[in-house]
Design brief:
Blueprint (H helix, E strand, L loop, with lengths): L1 H8 L38 H22 L16 H5 L2 E13 L3 E13 L6 H10 L5 E5 L1 H5 L3 E2 L5 H21 L4 E5 L7 H15 L6 E6 L6 H8 L7 H11 L4 E5 L17 E5 L11 H12 L7 E4 L9 H24 L2
Parallel strand pairs: 2-4, 3-5, 5-6, 6-7, 7-8, 8-9
Antiparallel strand pairs: 1-2
This protein binds zinc ion.
Zinc ion (ZN) binds next to loops.
Organism: Paraglaciecola aquimarina
EC number: 2.1.1.13
Keywords: Metal-binding, Methyltransferase, Transferase, Zinc
Length: 359
């Protein structure tokens, strides 16, 4: 049973039958009966079995909304997690959530984070049951997001390893175990979220990409890395103001990423100050082109989405371009997120038609 699911969905070179398959970078808003809307780290409103059932119901609703909007590569909308990094870490041993320290996350904002107090390990799978439920609900290709090793270490205080690199290698091994189990239940694309790649360039090039490659070691499904300028929260908006008129952060890491074994690179492209020609540095890779700004409630027009995709097509081959959102949409209202998903699909359709007319 497992094998047939895998064969059916994991066609590595051709995950979708048509050009420009759409996807989202990750999270989608949660229903207000599950968690406080329009917030990050929002506390759950249910408990015990009700919470477990509620998360799975929300997963089904989120999937239905993506399918209704015509999104081609669907996800769980991260309905079962409170936060894209900490929920994964909560399932590991060696991390003390009572013993919290304030650290500067991504060199940018203070956050109270748990402490690594001993060797880290994953006693059991974290998201595999959730992924099975998603797999049972849809025949579309599914993508599952995990935090990347570097972003994980940046969301913790380490009292045990006392080395960012050592801890990142340990997390890479743990992520690899989880990824292999996700692949076995039929996940088509496993994505690692590494916003830290836009901040710690030297570490990225010295060991960050190597750790990421350790996390995908032996996988046969598609693999992706999502690098972005973050959710539309104030700390990120303030940080963006300090970056100047041209955001060239990607330039630092693209040459090494281009040579890496990662299949897909997911990037923020719309309304950002990233010079689009930087995409030339990763030519040959598949690119999830962020054509939806998640830092504003303004819903893009299909033509705006199309413009971003057309600009990216100068540097990304058409068969390697996946229209996507810049980042997760968890902090947005459900209506705004739905509007943005529809705009993404409609914009991709415009460009798909143009490509077909020109062949
Ligand atoms: Zn992001």
């Amino acid at each position: 049973m497992k094998t047939s699911t895998l064969e059916k969905h994991s066609v590595k070179s051709n995950i979708c039958t048509h050009l420009l398959p759409t996807a989202t970078a990750g999270s989608l808003p949660k229903p207000s009966w599950l968690a406080e809307p329009e917030a990050l780290w929002s506390p759950w409103k249910l408990q015990g079995q009700e919470l477990i059932d509620g998360k799975h119901d929300a997963l089904r609703v989120s999937l239905q909304e993506q399918q209704h909007a015509g999104i081609d590569i669907v996800s769980d909308g991260e309905q079962t997690r409170q936060h894209f990094v900490t929920t994964f870490i909560e399932h590991l041993t060696g991390v003390d959530f009572e013993n919290r320290k304030t650290v500067k996350i991504r060199d940018r904002y203070d956050a109270s984070v748990p402490t690594v107090v001993g060797p880290v390990s994953r006693p059991k799978s974290v998201f595999v049951e959730d992924a099975k439920i998603l797999r049972q609900q849809t025949d579309k290709p599914i993508k599952w997001a995990l935090p990347g090793p570097m972003t994980m270490i940046d969301t913790l205080f380490d009292e045990h390893y006392k080395s960012r690199e050592k801890l990142a290698w340990e997390f890479a091994k743990i992520l690899n175990q989880e990824a292999k189990e996700l692949q076995a239940v039929g996940v088509d694309i496993i994505q690692f979220d590494e916003p830290a790649f836009n901040v710690f360039f030297d570490e990225v090039n010295e060991w960050g990409i190597a750790c990421l490659e350790r996390a995908i070691q032996g996988l046969e499904c598609e693999t992706a890395v999502h690098i972005c300028y973050g959710y539309g929260i104030q700390a990120n908006t303030d940080w963006k103001k300090t970056l100047g008129s041209q955001w060239r952060q990607y330039e630092e890491t693209f040459p090494k990423l281009q040579k890496s074994n990662i299949d897909i690179i997911s990037l923020e492209c719309h309304n950002s100050h990233v010079p689009i020609e930087l995409l030339e540095l990763i030519r040959g890779k598949k690119v999830m082109v962020g054509a939806i700004d998640v830092a504003t409630n303004n819903i893009e027009t299909p033509e705006e989405v199309a413009n971003t995709l057309r600009a990216a097509l100068k540097y990304v081959d058409a068969d390697k371009l996946y229209p996507c959102t810049n980042c997760g949409m968890a902090p947005l209202s459900r209506d705004v997120a739905k509007g943005k998903l529809n705009a993404l699909r409609a914009g991709a359709e415009i460009v798909r038609r143009e490509l077909l007319e020109n062949t």
